[in-house]
Amino acid sequence: MGMLLLLLVLLPLAAFPHTRGRLDSEQQEAMGPRAPVILIIGAGISGLGAAEKLHKHGFHNIKVLEATARTGGRIRTQSFAKGLVEIGAQWIHGPSPGNPVFRLASQFALLSPDALLEENQKINVGGHPSDIPVIYSSSGKKINPEVFANITELYNTWLEETRNFTDGECEPGASVGSFLRQKIVENSKGWDKELVEINLAFLTGLLNIECCISGTHSMDDVALCPFREYTMFPGLDCTFPKGYESLVNHIKAPLPDGTVILNKPVKNIHWNGAFRDNNSDVYPVKVQCEDGDSFVADHVIVTVPLGFLKKRYLDFFNPPLPQIKIQAIKNLGFGTNNKILLEFEKPFWDPNTTYIQTVWEGDSPLTEPNKDLKQNWVRKLSGCVVLEPPGQLGHVLCCFIAGKESEFMETLTDEEILSSMTDLFRKMTGNPELPPPISILRSQWHSQPYTGGSYSYVAVGSSGIDVNNLAEPLPTDKEALKPMQVLFAGEATERNYYSTTHGALMTGWREAQRLIDRYPELRATVSKAKL
Asked: By the 8 A CB rule, do 386 and 354 touch?
């Protein structure tokens, strides 16, 4: 028994990786003089933005662990047809001076001259397609958009009304979808009888667009009262001529070689402990990777998507997350919005067409949709954007689809999707001989193991408070000896700009700033170096 006690005393502290509580004075002294070690989980724009900002402010012990073989996260530029297309983020939403993505893109000279025009920075499209669409019916007729001008104006008015509610004015289960349906019922009583069916079909299409914008299966899933908190910058949405990843490459360029480690998926994060490195320094956090490697740190910034947290929150953190944070992960919504990119040898659309929309006759937001996904998944397509410039890229349509139909699409083969899309285009144009697309590329965000979907929304049963709770660092004890051991970033942690690239970047900067404020001595060192 005495020998056993002696062996236990002689064993290094690292043999007890789950030691909790305050560090003793010897451990605390070991942590004092050295520079803080920062780990960042995820090399999307949030994680890279945090790393670049920390590096600029004098933090040099930084590692970014990325599970996949590439940086960028849900920003993904890929070769297709004769040029580059976006598999993930497509536009800068609200490109104007208040938008940090726009500011960086302007600073790095990554935008076209039109995007920099002051008048374009003042236009407010609210995240919706800004061009007048070419509208086809499912029976093969081209419909003049003027037919739906009044309905479109009404719909936009209703959407604006959804942002006028304040806390306490909504029932707990109130949704954006239920509010819009109520407006449709009230207004449809005054429509001409011959227009009721086609108007309802058109409104179904507008709601499908809204599902893509919100990243949800149905607007019935989006909470009504918190919807007003989502904030949009003014500006006519624009793209990156050299791909969205050109921005990612500029952000990560200042980081020293070896800062970003690819193909390094994390298995779990042990926090609030005492872990020794090879120099016997003691750290409160240890990150264990799937390949057996481990890293110790003073602080870890977790930037993984909410979809990943929903799948892994139980086994990803040790000790487990506090109940308030678990509830936030459960409450908030995380949906799928996918793209189907199709190249045509010759376009079937007119030269000036920028956006194509299909109205499915017989569809109505007031009736339950057909749940046979195999037969009806294409009906959920919100529309197709004509990608530019056609002279360089070829003739390419980028079609958007959200929700369960989008997730079902991921299970199909390219040949099955090509067949369904060809049938759709032949039906809506009334041309049974319309040649099929010559190539296809589609996103599959729901199937990606480290993503699990596209982006977040505030679901029925949740609120902006859940977003704040998700963003709160651990440990939450303000008296903890080593605070901010685990920090949280990513678009789902931004209360006003969730679901956006600029929101993701802002949260990475936010968490970096927490650590910069935590170590004023580093800030002072950087200031002296500049002098």
From this structure: yes
Write b or e for each residue in 221-231: b if 16 or more Cβ atoms lie within 10 A of its Cβ, otherwise e.
bbbbbbbebbe
Whole-angstrom distance, CA of residue 59 vs CA of residue 225: 41
Q: Is pLDDT larger for residue 212 or for residue 168?
A: 212
**Every domain of the chain and the residues it spans:** 14-73+241-331+460-524, 131-233+337-442
Contact between 135 and 142 under an 8 Å Cβ cutoff? The reply is yes
How confident is the model over 168-175, as a mean pLDDT?
89
**Homologous superfamily, domain 14-73+241-331+460-524:** FAD/NAD(P)-binding domain (3.50.50.60)
Could you tell me whether strands 62-65 and 260-261 are parallel, antiparallel, or unpaired per DSSP bridges?
parallel
| Cis ω for the linkage preceding 265 (within 30 of 0) | no
What CATH number does the domain located at 131-233+337-442 have?
A: 3.90.660.10
* DSSP characters over 85-97: EESS---BSS-ST
Please give the order of strands across the beta sheet that includes 395-402: 142-143, 134-137, 355-359, 383-386, 395-402, 337-344, 439-442
pLDDT in tens, 106-165: 999 999 999 999 999 988 876 666 678 999 999 999 999 999 999 999 999 999 999 999
